[in-house]
Amino acid sequence: MSKIILTGDRPTGRLHVGHYVGSLKRRVELQNSGEFDKIYIMIADAQALTDNAEHPEKVRSNIMQVALDYLAAGLDPEKVTIFIQSQVPELTELSFYYMNLVTVSRLQRNPTVKNEIVMRNFETSIPVGFFTYPISQASDITAFKATTVPVGEDQLPMIEQAREIVRKFNQTYAEVLVEPEAVIPQNEICKRLPGTDGTAKMSKSLGNCIYLSDTEEELRTKVMSMYTDPNHIKVSDPGSLEGNAVFTYLDAFCRPEHFAQFLPEYESLDALKEHYQRGGLGDVKVKKFLFAVMNEQLAPIRERRLAWEKRTPEIVEILKAGSIEARKAAAQTLSEVKKAMRIDYFEDEEWVKGEVL
Ligand code: TRP
Description:
This protein has about 350 residues and is mainly alpha-helical. It folds into two domains: about 5-190 and about 310-350, Rossmann fold, CATH 3.40.50.620; about 215-305, Tyrosyl-Transfer RNA Synthetase (Orthogonal Bundle), CATH 1.10.240.10. It is about 55% helix and about 5% strand. The protein is built from 17 helices and five strands. It has helices at about 15-35, 45-50, 55-75, 90-100, 105-110, 110-120, 130, 135-145, 155-170, 190, 215-225, 245-255, 255-260, 270-280, 285-310, 310-340, 350; strands spanning about 5-10, 40-45, 80-85, 150, 180-185. The strands form two sheets. It has a three-stranded parallel sheet. Helix 1 (about 15-35) links the parallel strand 1 (about 5-10) and strand 2 (about 40-45). Tryptophan binds near residues 44, 47, 137 and 141.
């Protein structure tokens, strides 16, 4: 069986380092592994509209931002197909048939949707499109017969929903769809990188994000003002690692060789942590180290982004060609789906001959 990747992001803002360690970095590694027959990366504008119906211009303007972030992170349009969800209407059609295979109570149990309903104050008036987006996401995945879906941990309930739809469809009609597997980060910390203020999640509205598009100076300012241990006042005070964003980020970004490179007086992250907890190590020193470590990884991304920003007409071409190609693949699956459901009347010989009574 071919190995196929499909994944994507909602274009509601520029991508940040949480996206990077949570999924984007892995996608680039998978792309370069050469193990996949096909890789589709989708800019999920239609899904973004499910909770931004009043702000289509926000979604529209972020399509290019997300495309730039993809290319900057190292996704290579020669190796992956990048496309825009709304330009593949077959996905919507698939969703309409899948809706009959999912119950309202099943959707109500989806923990990610539950969480998002609270975050968006939708409790009393949930848009139907938003409520059903896990079904639309199953269409995104199954339309390409994806076997592998690299995503952040919060997306696991979506993959589970897709798997259930696949089983139900194949059981009810015919073996057409493929059950996907999620790929999530191995490193615990990367599953949920906190904001720079130490709160659980990076979010644009909280202003606690470090973006892939931040300049070196913006990165420095954000790192130097990160949340640490509020009780670590004097350098000599013992410090705590619990909820200390600087150390959490070091867990996500620091590799052993960074010590020889940027902080040779310590031999490992454990040694640095031990000194911090014992007392005698100041926040500024740790933050400067974190800045160096992050900047080493973000500088090439930033440079590629600046170079691509001068080539946006080419990006438009990439997205357009990608959407055409994605549409072909989705149309193929849709036709198999309709055949399995026997709603392909005009391709059905018996039906065409009029032997339908
Ligand atoms: N829900 C994903 C997000 O919030 C975006 C998305 C839409 C997606 N369809 C997908 C991810 C299919 C993986 C597979 O970012």
